[in-house]
Design brief:
The protein has a four-stranded antiparallel beta sheet, with no helix packed on it. It has helices spanning 3-10, 16-42, 44-49, 52-142, 155-160, 264-275; strands at residues 168-180, 195-199, 202-207, 213-228. 49% of the residues lie in helices and 13% in strands. α4 (52-142) packs across α6.
């Protein structure tokens, strides 16, 4: 396929790739055609002196070269416009595809939210109530424990809280470490290389500062312990701290914590408060009456206001 056919086909392309490739070829053709025409122009004086036949051939070649350059330039301009148009369509198509994908995801999430959330929120709100009732019962039972019975834990305390733990020694071994003779303090590991004049378990260590000198050090026996440190009781978060909004604006929440979520009595009062809330009135349920001034006072008589019964 010739260059012209390739460029003509590219003008029908709907993807930017083929158009870009064709545009590169068209620009190369334009450059080569321009160079060929310039070479002919440089030979014009020779053709003028060579006779009529040579001049006619020269003019024919020049006309062909000019036509080649004009055609190449026309293809460059057309393909540049085509590329701009194709890229705009591709961008619009990509935006449309992205829009469709986003809408599909949003619709699917909205469908699941409408299906799952109200039921799940009601179950969680009811679980808040159930845990508070259990906590209250546990408090009352712990005030008068039966003989031989330990204090009970509420459901969330039992499941969420981490109990305290005493420190545990995992491993013990005896080791020798250098210490200052006078204070018994350990020599830092990074300074052990400075210890000199070692004689058995005795040595000296040099020190600088305002009064340079040396100190006696002694190697003492220690018990090295690998220990899991003690842990205090850790209280976990409580279900009543959750906020479960309504599915739609204007409706009461499934659950919202009050000012205090640590006491079962407060939580149960909040349950009762939320149960008594009603959905907010819609605008159409509470219309307003507005009086709008009328400039043209020649309108037909207004309807008289109804007399009070």
């Amino acid at each position: 396929m010739g260059i012209i056919d390739t460029l003509k086909n590219a003008l029908k392309a709907t993807a930017s790739g083929p158009v870009e490739a064709a545009l590169d070829k068209a620009r190369q053709e334009e450059t080569e055609a321009g160079a060929a025409l310039q070479a002919l122009v440089d030979r014009r004086s020779q053709a003028l002196l060579a006779g009529d036949d040579a001049l006619r051939r020269f003019k024919a070649e020049q006309a062909q070269a000019e036509e080649r350059l004009e055609r190449a330039s026309a293809f460059v301009a057309a393909l540049e416009a085509q590329l701009t148009d194709v890229r705009e369509r591709e961008a619009e198509s990509a935006a449309a595809a992205k829009y469709r994908a986003a809408k599909k995801l949003s619709d699917a999430a909205a469908s699941r939210l409408a299906e799952i959330y109200p039921r799940a929120a009601r179950e969680l709100a009811d679980l808040v109530r159930q845990c508070a009732e259990a906590d209250l019962a546990v408090q009352e039972a712990n005030q008068n424990l039966p003989a031989g019975k330990g204090a009970l834990q509420g459901p969330e305390s039992l499941l969420r809280d981490l109990p305290p733990e005493e420190a545990r020694v995992l491993k013990r071994r005896r080791v020798k470490r250098w210490t200052f003779e006078s204070s018994g303090h350990l020599i830092p590991t990074e300074r052990e290389a400075e210890i000199q004049s070692i004689s058995g378990d005795n040595a000296v260590i040099q020190h600088g500062g305002l009064t340079p000198g040396s100190s006696k050090v002694v190697r003492r026996v220690f018990e090295e312990q690998t220990v899991v440190p003690a842990r205090r009781r850790e209280r976990g978060p409580r279900l009543a701290e959750l906020f479960l909004p309504a599915l739609r604006a204007g409706e009461p929440p499934f659950w919202s914590p009050g000012h205090e979520t640590s006491y079962p009595e407060s939580i149960l009062r909040r349950v009762s408060e939320l149960a008594g809330l009603k959905p907010r009135l819609r605008p159409e349920d509470q219309p307003e009456i507005l009086l709008i001034p009328i400039e043209d006072q020649d309108e037909p008589d207004a309807e008289p206001e109804p007399e009070a019964a």
